[in-house]
Amino acid sequence: MTSYFDPPIERRGSDSAKWGKFASRQHDVIGAWVADMDLPSADKIIEAVKNRLDERVFGYSMPPAEFIAVIRQRLQEKYAWKTENEWFVMQPGVVPSLFFASNCLGQSGDGIMAARPNYHYFLETAAYTDRLYQPVDCHITGKRWEMDTDMMAKNISPRTSAFLLCNPFNPVGRVLDKRELEAVAEICLRNGTMICSDEIHADLVLDEDKQHIPIASLDPEIEKSSITLFSAAKAFNLPGIGGLSFAIIPDKNLRAAFQKRSYGVATHPGALAYAATLAAYRDCDDWLAETITYLRGNRDYLQAEIAKMPGLSMTHVEASFLAWINVEDCIDTNPLQNFLNFGVALSGGDEMGRADHVRLNFGCHRSTLEEIVRRMKRALET
Asked: Measuring CA to CA, which residue among 275, 231, 288 is closest to residue 96?
């Protein structure tokens, strides 16, 4: 059965960082590390970009007239979260916004708290903003990763200016449920700690019985104590179209502080990014549904194959296109390098806080994923 994603798109020899990073090696390497998909973007996104190109003038851009209204309606319909126009701050990307948020909260020497393992920028933000990183370890409980909220409650203090939340949780693939989010929020509110929540994978929930919940939507008090970061880049495969994200900051004083920190540093999103993002949110939910179905199939295939590989295991991926694979039983062989030697480039877990894991991007054509599996099996046989 064919799909929108057939045939696969060849990215070797293109400007793809995912594939080009290891292109100089003597043997072919499949890029399965950085978090972009090899799947084509929606036709309506491509059409919107082409239409914008036809205007032939590319001066400084503003959000299209309906841009924020479309997003607000989407947040209301998907998450029952009512937002206001003035809460939105356009940004070039979610990662810069993490740093702007950290810089505008508290003072030099304050604590920045984040779970571990985590997307590496969450672990690095404190050092680059002259703060102290306060880890919250995660453990597998009932076959899924959960934050140690007892550890969080013990180590947080009024000098902890921010908690950086990743939801859905990269790299462990979790959709944090209401109980977990309320526990995090209660601890933060009790200590006067602001929450900065990266929700870039919100549209990529794979499990049909799971629902993404923006932490700010839980309660007006939590909402006022939060900065929420969204972007269409991951779900609609737009990271190379030009940076565009938006921070939702209900509190006007916090919003002003955030804007002050980003002033003169954050670039203005460009016309093509606005055109692509508007089309994604307004016109492409059918494409998104097909993509989620495809990714779900890839996840199920990969999960079954990893279970057959000696020394490897992975927890169930509830959201995103990233698998978090335990390699501790073959750690003596340097599995990351071993897989690379056999032509599969993965992300090392050491930069995400767990050297006994690797991260694999399964956002690719099924035939590519099948070849990744074949190469990994050969690597483990040596």
From this structure: 231
Helix axes 271-283, 43-53, angle to 10 degrees: 150
Which residue in the block uniquely carries the two structure tokens 């030099």?
Answer: 108
**Could you tell me which of 273, 240, 238 has the C-alpha nearest to residue 15?**
240
Please compute, for residue 265, the number of CA atoms within 13 A of its CA located in the half-sphere on the CB side.
13
- Contact in structure between 87 and 75 (CB atoms under 8 Å): no
CA–CA gap between residue 353 and residue 254 (Å, rounded):
30
Q: What is the mean pLDDT of residues 113-133?
A: 97
Tell me how far CA of residue 185 lies from CA of 52, 153, 159, 283, in angstroms.
42, 11, 16, 34
* 8 Å CB contact between 369 and 346: no
Amino acid at 312: L
Mean pLDDT of 97-120: 97
Distance between CA atoms of 217 and 221, rounded to whole angstroms? Answer: 10
β-sheet bridge partners, residue 169: 174
Three-class HEC string of 41-85: CCHHHHHHHHHHHCCCCCCCCCCCCCHHHHHHHHHHHHHCCCCCH
Q: What's the pLDDT tens digit per position in 221-273?
A: 999 999 999 999 999 999 999 889 999 999 999 999 999 999 999 889 999 99
Q: What's the pLDDT tens digit per position in 66-100?
A: 999 999 999 999 999 999 999 999 999 999 999 99
Helix or strand run (H / E) with residue 290:
helix 285-306
* Closest of 221, 163, 231 to residue 199, by C-alpha: 231
pLDDT over threshold 90, residue 27: no
From residue 49, alpha-carbon distances to 40, 63, 223, 377 in Å are 14, 14, 34, 41
Q: What is the model's pLDDT at position 2?
A: 59
User: What is d(CA 9, CA 66) in angstroms, rounded to the nearest whole number?
Assistant: 33
8 Å CB contact between 227 and 241: no
Strand 144-147, strand 132-141: pairing: antiparallel
Q: Sketch out the chain's domains with CATH numbers.
A: 17-42+285-381 (3.90.1150.10), 58-282 (3.40.640.10)
- Alpha carbon of 60 to those of 45, 57, 272, 274: distances in Å? 21, 10, 11, 11
DSSP per-residue codes, 238-284: -GGG---EEEE--SHHHHHHHHHHHTTTSPPPPHHHHHHHHHHHHH-
